[in-house]
């Protein structure tokens, strides 16, 4: 299997793992939900976990890959405020935790580009 054939499956695996984590350990995700959103943080945690699982399924299937990968890129942009909140909230934590929170911010760029690359390489059937 070539690198370009593995890439969508790796992205789907990342999304599925993150989606499952939202249900398995929701409290850590609740803490980074921006305060201005309506409803409870747990609702947003579960909704984003469900979205990640749906995106994982869509990216894994060649028929829906292009559309799901574009939606994944948009999703990665959409969750950026949660990463900003985490970085702000963790600014007084020990250096390794602070570094992890700050490191998540620029990580969004390659994730968005990865999802867009998967979409660009997908067959135009979706």
From TrEMBL:
Look up and give the membrane topology term: Multi-pass membrane protein
Query: What keywords would UniProt list here?
Result: Membrane, Transmembrane, Transmembrane helix
| Compartments, as annotated in UniProt | Membrane
Q: Does the keyword Metal-binding apply?
A: no
Q: Name one Pfam family in it.
A: MauE
Which biological process, per GO, is one annotated for this protein? Answer: methylamine metabolic process
Concerning PANTHER family, the annotation shows: DOXX FAMILY MEMBRANE PROTEIN (PTHR36974:SF1), MEMBRANE PROTEIN-RELATED (PTHR36974)
Under which name does UniProt file this protein? Uncharacterized protein
